[in-house]
Write a structure and sequence with these properties.
This protein is mainly beta. It is about 15% helix and about 40% strand. Keywords: Bacterial flagellum, Cell projection, Cilium, Flagellum.
Length: about 575
């Protein structure tokens, strides 16, 4: 019985050391595998054969101890070492390393898998995958590039395929305005010749007169049904973008006056002061004598000029001359700048300013905004005031926003915040007044050209127009007992019965660790230690083999006795 027991015990020892050598060999073989976690074998004793349980001490005997002979050892567990491996830099921005206890979540052919190996790349569908084609999982984004954290999805980075534009939301204007210049009290006054109404016994025209009945001389109408009028005046020495008017059977003289006003971008109403010459508000009106009268806004840069040939009908000049009786005055400045709508289309803006009032404590300039790209049929956009104190500092400007209509395009309506606080109220006579665009935050269309992943797993897409947008977020999984995970090949694990369910977290939370992009976690195999352990296991194996050899010799001796 004793020799047989020793033989079986040593056979078990051989098997255990073979297991240990297998594990050590696997560790060493994967010393170059990124994200690999080494293992070690834990042994435990088997049941012992009890020869005697011992006895208690008595008055005449000190007692005896149990007599037991062990029956060898068992493999208690093969334990993974989930300690952090060394992290090294790589040349790919899609390579990721976890500095913590989390696992990457992958979608494979058999469902979800988990890995520490962050060797990822983009496939032909722009999806982030590992070297075996498993898709990296995380949070996606909606159409406005906001993270959608309700469900996991494939991480997509469509380099070269995703285009985006940014509508302008903020505009900052700078410059310097001369407070000692001429106060603007007069606007340009231009008057047409007296016109008659052929439909009303050649009386002076009124706003209700049909445009086809308007005559400069009796019997010679200026306009006919179906023709297209185009008006190209100049303002401040600059030609304005033309607007057009199609003459219909019901088009009136009042409609024509509105057409002139809209093309010129004259602004009136609100707190805009009356013209110092006419005593009325700026705009285009019809006088009692049947004349079209144009009263412009004050400011030299708003001075209007209309010459023969500025008004055409189907390309032919309309014989309606205007006579100037008053020129615009007032210290003023002008600047042009470009903003962008939601489709990235440029919208050209013009801003002028004119000195409106001056006291011993402050100076007030009025600004005007215009845009030929404003789709509401009027180039006038907005106006407001800028107030400076006695030291040339802006104390107030209002309004702080303006709107541009884009109804004739597929873009959204534009509401833009305006910051005029950087304008100085100090300038010299020689420098005069100036305005300039300091900043606007819109951009034309751009294509996704690169991406960066931060330590929280947020994927930031960088477009070639300078815009940065969130494209998604890599998520991690944690397990209450990572030792319970099942290895499934391809450097991945699957949920095991004793691992507990995965706890999904974003990097940087709940101990999952942070992500380091452009880096790789190396194998945590300690080759030196494993080689030492291999020597120990080999020695143990030889020892067990020697025991078997000794038992064999004893059995041979017994067989000799039987001859």
């Amino acid at each position: 019985m004793g020799l047989t027991s020793a033989l079986n015990t040593s056979l078990g020892g051989l098997s255990l050391n073979e297991t240990s050598i297998d594990v050590l060999g696997n560790n060493i073989a994967n010393a170059g595998t990124n994200g690999f976690k080494a293992s070690n074998v834990l042994f435990t004793t088997q049941l012992s054969r009890t020869l005697g349980v011992g006895s208690r001490p008595t008055g005449t005997n000190g007692g005896t101890n149990p007599r037991q002979i062990g029956l060898g050892a068992l493999s208690a567990s093969i334990r993974k070492d989930f300690t952090q491996g060394s992290v090294t830099n790589s040349t790919s921005p899609s390579d990721l390393a976890i500095q913590g206890d989390g696992f990457f979540i992958l979608e494979g052919p058999d469902g979800q898998a988990y890995s520490r190996n962050g060797n990822f790349e983009l496939n032909s569908q722009s999806l982030l995958t590992n070297q075996s084609g498993f898709k990296v999982q995380g949070y996606g984004v909606d159409e406005d590039f906001n993270l959608v954290t309700t469900t996991l999805t494939d991480i997509e980075v469509p380099l070269g395929d995703l285009n985006v534009a940014q509508a302008t939301r903020n505009v900052d204007i700078g410059g310097a305005l001369l407070p000692t210049g001429t106060i603007g009290t007069l606007g340009t006054v231009l008057t047409s010749g007296a016109l008659t109404d052929a439909g009303n016994a050649n009386a002076a025209i009124t706003g209700a007169t049909l445009l086809t009945d308007v005559e400069a001389s009796i019997g010679t109408p200026l306009f006919t049904v179906g023709e297209t009028l185009e008006f190209t005046p100049s303002k401040g020495g600059r030609s304005l973008d033309p607007l057009t008017l199609v003459v219909g059977a019901g088009t009136t003289a009042a409609d024509f006056a509105t057409f002139l006003d809209s093309t010129l971008g004259i602004q009136s109403g609100g707190a805009i002061p009356n013209d110092g010459g006419t005593g009325g508000q700026p705009g285009v009106t019809i006088t009692g004598g049947g004349e079209f009268q144009i009263v412009g806004n004050s400011g030299v840069v708003n001075d209007i000029n209309i010459t023969i040939g500025n008004l055409t009908s189907n390309g032919a000049t309309v014989a309606m001359p205007f006579t100037e009786s008053q020129s615009a005055n007032g210290e003023s400045a002008i600047t042009d700048f470009v903003i962008f709508d939601s489709l990235g289309e440029p919208v050209t803006m013009k801003m002028t300013s004119v000195l409106e009032s001056r006291t011993s404590n402050n100076t007030v300039f009025r600004y005007f905004l215009e845009s030929a790209d404003d789709n509401d049929g009027d180039i006038a956009v907005s106006n407001g005031t800028i107030t400076f104190d006695s030291k040339g500092k802006v104390t107030n400007f209002t309004p702080t926003t303006f709107a541009v209509s884009r109804v004739l395009s597929a873009a959204d309506e534009m509401d833009v915040s305006l910051d005029l606080s950087n304008i100085s109220g100090i300038s010299s006579q020689s420098a005069g007044s100036t305005l300039k665009l300091d900043r606007q935050d819109g951009s034309d269309p751009g294509t996704l050209s690169s991406f960066v992943i931060d330590e929280t797993g947020i994927i930031n897409g960088v477009f070639d127009n300078g815009i940065i947008r969130t494209l998604g977020q890599v998520t991690l999984a944690r397990f209450s007992n990572p030792q319970g995970l099942l290895e499934s090949g391809n450097s991945t694990f699957q949920e095991g019965v004793s691992s507990g369910p995965p706890f999904l977290v974003t990097p940087g939370n709940f101990g999952a660790g942070t992500i380091r992009a452009g880096s790789i976690e190396l194998s945590n195999t300690d080759v030196g230690r494993n080689l030492v352990d291999l020597i120990v296991a080999s020695t143990n194996y030889r020892g067990n083999a020697r025991v078997i050899s000794s038992v064999q010799q004893l059995v041979d001796e017994l067989l000799v006795l039987g001859r």
